[in-house]
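Re: export button greyed out
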Amino acid sequence: MPPTVIPWFIAIVLPGWSRPQETLTRMAMWCMRFTPRVHLEHVGCTGVVPSTPSASTALLSSSPPSMPTSMPPLILLDVSGCLRVNGGARRVVGRIARGLTRRGIVHALGSAPSSGQAVVQAMGVGLGYGNSYAPHPSRPHHPSLDIAELEQLPFQCLRISDAICAALREVNLTRIGEARVIARSALTDRYGPELGERLDMAFGLRPWPFRAVAPPVPVVGEFVFASPCAQQEAVELACIQAVEMLCAAIESSGDVVRNEDGSVRISRIGCTNGRGVRTLAVRVERARLATVIGTIHFGEATRDPRHLWSILRPRIQRMHLGEHELGEGIERILLTATRVGRCRGGTPFLGGAVGMAATNTSGSSVSVMAGEGVHRISIHSGNDHHAATQRAIGELVDQLHARLGQGGVRRADA
Amino acid sequence: MGYSLPSEGTEQRRAVRAALAERIGTLEGRAQAMTERPMHIATGWTAIDAALGGGIARAGLHEWWGALPEVRAVLVQLAWNALLHDDRHRVGAHRHVVWVGRAAWPSADALVRGMRAPIAGMFGQRIPRTWPDARLHDRSLMVDVPAHDTGARLWAIEQAVRCPGICAVIADGRGFDLAATRRLQLAASDTCLLCMRGTEHRTDARRSVLTAGATRWLVERTERPTHVITDRVPWLRTMQERGVVGAELISRIPPEPTWRVTIERSKGTSMHISSECSAHVAQSWQWQGTAEAPAPEAAAARRRAKRGERLIADHAARSALELRALKDIDNAEPTAGAITRSRSHDRVTSRGTRWARGNDGRGVA
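Workaround output, generated via the alternate export path:
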């Protein structure tokens, strides 16, 4: 029996959006933590193309249906198959709402088993209809609307052009439910196919146009053998090269740290915003043998090839490389930084006169009573103590995790 | 064959020489800083500190014999001393303490110092306000190694000892042989390694165990007289002196746990102690808090101070305005029909706002 995937969609409508397009794209990237399929629809973006009106429509011949300029941007998440891993739709909606609120973004959410229904719900909430975030005994904190509530929503919730809305208003049609009872052919003849399509989408009979946003380019280090290799030393050398390529790729991907609106965050004087690997996905493809896949989580972001190799080495050494005579061996080593974090910064180590000056001005010189008398302690390399300690402890924790398992190191319970 | 001008070569050489001199100076500075750093951590036990020339060695392997709960209780105090010593001499480094092996893990409340400090100053004793100190709690790493896997335990201890971000390691060292202790002694070049060796199987068996540790210690539980608790609780002492509390009642107070710590062997120091040198240890760290308030308290105090300054400034500005207004009223000619009021009729609210009262005595907004 094939596994059942429950279709579920979450729509995010951003009323009053005034930030640049790059920020919207970054938000779509942020949403990829819940699902890989994210659709973006914006006035300035051609994420969705409404269906072409029929040529016989006199009303729309002069003004083709287009997104009105007042239409808020839409982010549609296809979370089908991702609900269980994220703890359910309600939990995902809650996390999205918290994340957007924390970033000061005004938003409206819709969550439904069909994409069009989710969009219409979100639009309705954004326009102030049926704000279901109010506590309700049957649906606590769940922004879904039922069919009766959907029928009471205005036509703007269908994200159709202003011209069609105005034309509907001329014949005293203001609610979705009022158009739903009219024969579909009559609606198509007068207003074009777009209205009927959107009505079908709103009630789950047709999917909302969906064009998934391309995920960001992964940071990888790769080594491909010309032929299967089963020699331990060669595999280790190849792995070292892949690690160095990965570190170089991280370094070249840019050390800038960006704010939520896409602007570059200015670092402190003398500090670097270096980026490093937090989670590393390892994929080793073997000829005539199963592919080895693993994930390594690091205690601190690092891009030190020596440390990465020290963690990776025992795993590579434990791996069965195969028999060369049987045609077995390693074909490809792929390291992907699935999660990249900021390395612990701080003032870099300063030597010489500059370091002395920095040390003296930062007040690191302390008088200490020890032994026979008072000693003046001058810590020359004391400019970056905390960051260096954090890095060292991160490496220690990684080493202990690699041998003792994830439960091998823990902090004291509060 | 090309050649360079002599001046260019000289400048290059000079630059290289300057860079090298700077680098050597940096290295020498670091080395000097390392040598200037005191080599001993004061234990707080006077007899032992005097015998060891300032305290336990900052780097090296120290072996502790005795029942594990007793040794653990003493080593918590030494871990505190090591952490405070490191904070004093490596400002801002925030180095950590590692506890290797479940037998070495302390309870969480033992990692917070000064929990009794607030009541130390009660009833008239002039003691400055202190706060509980949770630095050891925040900077402790607990390492869990598989039971009976001595090799994994030894490896974990060595990794922790070699880590530059660790100032002290407290480890379960039961069953280590001479080679293992030698390995740890070599690794602990900049870290204080306190190794719990457990209880000896027969009397004085510890003396025949071959080891490369720098010192060997013995911890035993002792019972001190009950009335000692009155030293730490001034109100109880006062009531005892006044005769309000009798000796019978005081005898029912459970005594504070105390231990006798004996250093039996010390090599590598200038004194080469071979005779016994013992000291009593009490849980005095429970009374020693930190003078630094926790961050929320400090922030609240800052907010209070700012608010006070703002209120004072507002009050001064308002008073100046009112004085100016009064002067204007005095200078102006009296108008017919105006309500004459004096400032004594005004009501000052708790927020300092002055609400004018009408003639009927009710406030006028």
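Chain B has eleven helices and 13 strands. The button fix ships in the next patch.
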